[in-house]
Amino acid sequence: MASSAASGSTISTQIAHIAKRLLEEEGGSVPVQRIAVRAESILDIESTDVASITVDTADEISTTQTDDGQTLVTDVGTISEPEPDPITEAFEGKAVFFDLDPIPSELAPIIADLGYHSLEDLAARSPAEFKTEINNHLDVAAPDAHLEQISLVTGSIADSLTNAGYTSFHDLATADADALSGVHTTLTEAKAEKIITTANNQALTVTDEEAKQIVHSAEMELPVGDTLAQKALQSYKDDLDGSGSGAASITQIERTEQTVGDPKALTSGEAPEDHQYVSDIGANDSDPVACGLQVLDDEHHPQVPKAETHPDAGPGALPVDENGDVVAPAVPVEPELQVPVDELVAKALHDHTALRLIGPRGSGKNYLLKYIHHQTNRAYVSIDVDAATTPEDLFGPLTPDENGVIKPRNAAVKQTLINGGTVVLNEFPVMQAGAAIALHRYFNEGSLLIKAHGELIEPHPAARVVITMNPPTVEYRDSEPMNAATRGRFLTYQVPYIQSVEQEVDTLDQQVNSPRTIVDRDTLTKIVKFAHATRDESSYPTLSTRNLTLLCKNIDYGATPKAAVKNELRAVSEPNQSHEATYDELNRYL
User: Would the pTM count as exceeding 0.85?
Assistant: First the structure.
């Protein structure tokens, strides 16, 4: 039913406010008809009148005509009058915690009685603590119930339940089916589960998921600026020098001569199968697979990837979830081999086999490698190469020492192989042929011949080399096909975008919503489903998992989900790709 906006505000100004709100929501131009429909539900005015006022009399509104005659609002200038309350409420709702969608109306006063009087109060509580507190209160307040109201509960079963301490629907709703089935001879586990389900529908109780939704909804309603300020200051504190001022940190990779740790099985005398990488993520989540890659014993080596909570963590540290565990990658299944990619990579890294990973941008190639190296305490050095990369860049130049004697100086690749780390060469095919061929002996025999240095190097036994590349398709014009002589030296795995929507949502949820909620799971699911649609249609700009984490930042900064998605689409689009068709597809999801 329509409601009247503030009497002191003109109709054209009210429409301008609605148009501005919709521009923010949509992240671009908005059809006049859409503004008309929204205005009709808020103002005492017909939609046809809205369209007329928008085009003819609203001075603040800029419009344009499409080729098919549709009128689009492209911009709204400065509006002289403040936004009326009915419009604010229509787009934002009232910012009080008991109006949050996940909170049932009958639960709101109980939450207030427990001392939660603001969004800040509720957001400061962990979901687990909130669930325990609210359910304990509900348990005390729950009235005695006539358990026989549940169809499966006969008189004798009701007596047995009461004698066992189950006196209310709340007691039954929070019971364990196995324990419940033991209180009466005719009460099977299947019956117990049905009783619990029925009681849960009749009792007022909060589940783990409901508690999480309630607390996270409160977090999402809080102004983000204060949180960003706290985060920025903490990040700065992490980089203070000894005097208490901010400072850069410079690591000379070629001068990092600390070797990696030895295998734990070697130093502990235990069996090698006791200290190996186990693939327990992705498709192997329910049935973990041992992969043979040995865990080393020095987790503090400076080049072992660190969790962001580690004292020595720097830029590029691995994110952690709300439990402090490193967020696992979203692991796809290798298309031809039908084996999870992390399992294949870990098995390939158990020896010196040259490994090549091919995947589109943002598919998680490097994150997967960093995760495996973190889990096994292995040094990881990632190097982006290009057409100007020379053997000297990889292995080091000849330079005079303090006495003027010409000597070789080690570069990153050579020093990392000596130290026992893994060198990851990104976009390997674009590198000069001479630089690539200089590595052929290592790929073939595991030794490194550096002619300019006059050295034949047998690398540390833990040393590995991995190359990554994008597929040589139109979308990746700079990713040249490798010549056959080089291509045939690698064990090659495809790393496609994650095929499971649910798995990608799980990964994003952990990466984006820790330690606080930024995007609710329902919205994340819609965004991921749309991203999958872009990956299946070549005429659409493609959104990778990495793009999704970036657009969630803009949601955190105040953009609507749809506007954030549109912004990222523009950032990644190719000249031949259609924005309008992609936006039409987006409207199906958001």
Answer: no
